[in-house]
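User: Here's a chain of 176 residues. Predict its fold as C-alpha cells.
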Amino acid sequence: MSRSFTIRPARPEDVPAVVSMVYQLAEYERAAPQECQITEDHLQTALFAPNPPVFCHVARDDASGEALGMSLWFLNFSTWTGRHGIYLEDLYVAEAARGRGVGRALLGALAQECVRRGYPRLDWWVLHWNPARDFYAALGAVPMDDWIPYRLTGGALERLAEATGQEGTYNLAPTA
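Assistant: Prediction complete.
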C-alpha cells in the first residue's frame, strides 16, 4: 500500500466501497446488524440525484486505487448565524489505513468546503467511548457537552405523526 492517497468527491463507482465502509463503521460502533440498512441504491440516489441531499468524499490509495476512507455529510443551518454549516454524518478510515493521515485529510477537505462556501462551522457527533475523541481534540474540535442529542424513531415517530391532525391541530393521547 502506497503512502500517498487522494481525497475527492465520491463518484458513482465509489458507491459499493462507501456502503461497505458504512457497514464496517456500524460494526465498529457496536450497532446491531439490523440497524444499518443502507443499500447501494439508497446511496446512489442520495448522492447523485438532482440537488442531492447528501455528499461524500472518498480517500483512495494513489497506487492501488483502494478505498481507504470516506466522509458522508450534508448541510445544516444555524438560525443563530443565519448560515449553513456542514454536518458530518459518518467519517470512516479502513483499519489498515489508520495512522496515515487519511482521517485528518478527510476532515481537512470538509474544512476547506466550509471556508470556500462561507460556512462558519463543521459539526459531528462522537460516541463517548470512541478513542478518536483525542484525535478530534488535537485538531481543535471541542465537545458540545451542554447539548443533549434527542432522536425520535420507530413507533414513537409514527405515533406522533398519526396523532397530528390535518391543518395543524393536534390530538395527542398519552402513551402508556
